[in-house]
Write a structure and sequence with these properties.
This protein is an alpha/beta fold and about 300 residues long. It is about 50% helix and about 15% strand. Helix 4 (about 70-90) runs parallel beside helix 5 (about 110-125), helix 7 packs parallel to helix 8 and helix 8 packs parallel to helix 9 (about 225-240). The two termini are about 30 Å apart. It binds dihydroflavine-adenine dinucleotide (FDA). Dihydroflavine-adenine dinucleotide (FDA) binds near residues 187, 223 and 227.
């Protein structure tokens, strides 16, 4: 049943009709638990509150799969605006983005031009940029662009997904760049030809890549709500005397907030991924797919109002 619900929500996350409908009717249906609002002002207020609790942030302007140049340029401007707000209000926040929003599917020239504009703004305001990893079809291209831009800009990182077979090779290949990487299990629906179909293998592979990246001496963001991964990382760093400033934990806004604060109290760096914007539908559906139990929580929220 859970598998069926997961498939259902992943199908909905990609559906253009429902995406349009969601944009029109705004942040309802309980999405507000996972999304910090529709405007950069809403997001800045949410970041301030998190910063006050000792949590650091990576801010994400929601949106993906843009298929026209005008929209890609608008999304780029939105990222630049967010970077300026972070810099001017001295928020402790980085920025995350999806390259499909910057024109990845439209042309190489467009995506590179937009990425360079964003990275220039990041450099000016001292805001680190992470390229989120999208589906398998775009993984190779995302990493190629990352490698190219990493030669030009220091303040850039990306994400690797432990469900992909290719990731163990990718992490070793990327080692020459000494990159700051976020390591995750992976959120998209992939074929068993390219990704582990069993959760146990995905979990084992996440542990494996956390170990490789940390022991290679690189900055590692362990992005998981899974206590096993958190405990594994704590033990690993202790065993190998890895200092607290070589790694951090990351979790999503609205998920396990108490655990996030607990990790801060224990002295770990804890970064919260804060999404905002009116294109929240695909993101929200993927969160429901990950944990169908959230549906019950959200339904309760709707009926309480
Ligand atoms: P998983 O879903 O396997 O759950 C394991 C355990 O965690 C559960 O059994 C439960 O104990 C606990 N748990 C999970 N959710 C909970 C909840 N709501 N309440 C209480 N306990 C809960 N993916 C991607 O493909 N590309 C990307 O760029 C990113 N970026 C990203 C950034 C950040 C900061 C995070 C945290 C995640 C991503 N992801 C991602 C998503 C990631 O790939 C993955 O889909 C989710 O994090 C879910 O996997 P987990 O490792 O969190 O645990």
């Amino acid at each position: 049943m859970e598998k069926l619900m997961r498939k259902f929500f992943l199908f909905l996350s990609n559906n253009k009709f429902f995406t349009r409908l969601a944009k029109k009717y705004g942040l309802r249906c309980g999405a507000g638990r996972f999304v910090a609002g529709e405007t950069i002002e809403d997001a800045a207020a949410a970041i301030k509150k998190l910063n006050e609790k000792g949590l650091v942030v990576t801010l994400d302007h929601l949106g993906e799969f843009v298929d026209n140049e005008e929209e890609a340029r608008e999304r780029t401007e939105e990222c630049i605006k967010a970077i300026k707000v972070i810099g001017e209000q001295q928020l402790d926040s980085q920025l995350s983005l999806k390259m499909t929003s910057m024109g990845l599917d439209i042309s190489d020239e467009l995506v590179m031009e937009n990425m360079r504009k964003i990275l220039e703004a990041g450099k000016k305001h001292n805001v680190f940029i992470t390229i989120d990893m999208e589906d398998y079809a775009r993984c190779g291209k995302t990493l190629d662009i990352f490698k190219q831009l990493k030669k030009e800009y220091d303040g850039l990182g990306t994400v690797l997904q432990s469900y992909l077979y290719r990731t163990v090779d990718d992490i070793q290949e990327l080692n020459v760049y000494k990159p700051n990487l976020r390591l995750v299990k992976g959120a998209y629906k992939e074929s068993p030809e390219v990704a582990y179909p069993n959760k146990a293998d995905v979990d084992e592979n996440l542990k494996k890549i956390i170990k490789i990246h940390l022991l290679n001496g690189n900055y590692t963001a362990v992005a998981s709500h899974d206590d096993h991964m958190i405990e594994y990382t704590k033990e690993l760093v202790k065993e190998h005397n890895i200092p607290n400033d070589q790694f951090e934990f990351q979790m999503l806004y609205g998920i396990r907030a108490e655990k996030q604060e607990e990790l801060v109290k224990e002295g770990y760096k804890m970064r919260v991924y804060v999404p905002y914007g009116n294109d929240w539908y695909g993101y929200f559906m993927r969160r429901l797919a990950e944990r169908p139990a959230n549906v019950a929580f959200i339904l309760k929220g709707i009926f309480k109002k």
